[in-house]
Write a structure and sequence with these properties.
The protein has a domain of about 130 residues: Regulator of G-protein Signalling 4, domain 2. Helices cover about 75% and strands about 0% of the residues. The chain contains twelve helices and no strands. α5 packs antiparallel against α6 and α5 packs antiparallel against α8. The longest helix has about 50 residues. The chain is elongated and about 50 Å long. About 15% of the residues are buried. It holds the Pfam family RGS. Keywords: Lipoprotein, Palmitate, Phosphoprotein, Signal transduction inhibitor. This is Regulator of G-protein signaling 4.
């Protein structure tokens, strides 16, 4: 009985240690898997952000023209306007740009009508803010649509965005988080911004921020 009792705790301890080792191994494997998945995601985001140079982003602040003629800049600006529920302005501008590329004369009228109905008419679903004179002139252009029939309206909306939403965009996180150079400052805000948008801090800066 004494032998049985003395060997029992040993067997129990052996089993527990083995069980704990198994559990620990499983958790580590799971953790590695999660870390790998997380690092893969970060690498993909990082490689995506690396393709957009800081020089390119800074040029967006030079003019609205530079911003919206850059694919990534246009996407960022569109996202910002969407957050303000005013994306109809940039959508109208883009539609006009696409319209001016129309090669077939037969397609001018239906395309022009679609843009007019969507952005300019009284019952437009995404009505843009145009003065009555420009609106009336554009309406008249619909009688015989040409490639330039939306030019004046497009210029007015461009100027409106340039003086209003573009300036707010440059002060918003949609722009600031992209233009913030790697390693610029080490405050909690910058560190958080860099991690959020994968603008990579180097290892020294990360350790200082931590």
């Amino acid at each position: 009985k004494c032998n049985a009792l003395s060997s029992s705790p040993s067997r129990i301890f052996s089993f527990s240690a083995k069980d704990m080792k198994h559990r620990l191994g499983f958790l580590l494997q799971k953790s590695d898997s999660c870390d790998y998945s997380s690092s893969q995601g970060k690498k993909e985001k990082l490689s995506s952000s690396q393709r957009l140079s800081q020089e390119e982003v800074r040029k967006w602040a030079d003019s609205l023209e530079n911003l919206i003629h850059h694919d990534r800049g246009l996407a960022a600006f569109r996202a910002f306007l969407k957050s303000e529920y005013s994306e109809e302005n940039i959508e109208f501008w883009v539609s006009c740009e696409e319209y001016k590329k129309t090669k077939s004369p037969a397609k001018l009228s239906p395309k022009a009508r679609k843009i007019y109905d969507e952005f300019i008419s009284v019952q437009a679903t995404k009505e843009v803010n145009l003065d009555s004179c420009t609106r009336e002139k554009t309406s008249h252009n619909m009688l015989e649509p040409t490639l330039s029939c939306f030019d004046e309206a497009q210029r007015k909306i461009f100027t409106l965005m340039e003086k209003d939403s573009y300036r707010r965009f440059l002060k918003s996180p949609y722009y600031l988080d992209l233009v913030s150079p790697p390693g610029a400052g080490c405050g909690p805000e910058n560190c958080k911004r860099n991690h959020t948008h994968t603008l990579d801090c180097n290892s020294n800066i990360i350790s200082q921020c931590a």
